[in-house]
Specification:
Helix content: 25-40%
Distance between the termini: 35 Å
Structural class: alpha/beta
Amino acid sequence: MTSSRRCNEEYAWNEFDPESYLAHNYLVVCDGDRKILEFARDFFVRAFAADPGRTGRRGIDVGTGSNLYPALAMLPFCDRVTLYEYSQANIDWLTRQRAAGWPSWSQVWVRFWRLLSQRSIYAEFAAFPNVELAECVDLVTGSIFDLDASIRRWDVGTMFFVAESITPRRSEFVAAVDNFLDALRQGAPFVIAFMENSVGYQVAGKHFPAVAVDCDDVRHCLDRRASDVVVERFDAGENPLRDGYSGMIVACGRIEV
């Protein structure tokens, strides 16, 4: 008999170490993250060109962990941003960070904000974006597999390095992408990023799973659900973040129902 238990549930997500993940991945803006953030920035600027500003919109970033740059990319366009996270360790880290005004800002995220601020809507947004982020963020604990598809709540969304990095099962990867798209309203713009051909990864000595995906896999997931889909790939380069992946993939589009 086949078990109904999701493979994702078999991993110790509450033991995920957000400080180690932050230190390993984001103390320096790697070339892949720079290109992905520029891609997301320019897409959102275009997507909201006819209606700039926040105007009551709500955004969601799924699987935030200790990576704040997807939320920062949405910040000038949303009144509220939901950080939707499964790991209690990551929720605790986010809670402490928000309460203290994001102490990681000056060491890490200000560099990412400078990239965003190469476009005027970000540069003119706020004198202290970290304070703005603390005021507008809602932290929600939940699994991506439990997002309520019956209520399309959010007007814009991001999900970076999540769907392929929470399971070794392709079926769960597809379900994660579908559930993310289901959470967005019709016409909502979104950006999703993936590690290409990942074989899994280590965080503070603990192994976490991945499923190997490429651009064709991403297009297959998105083309049947979204319009204006663009998929780009960036090579891992000479100094990859870690072993066991071949590059990064980023995709954007708008929700179709």
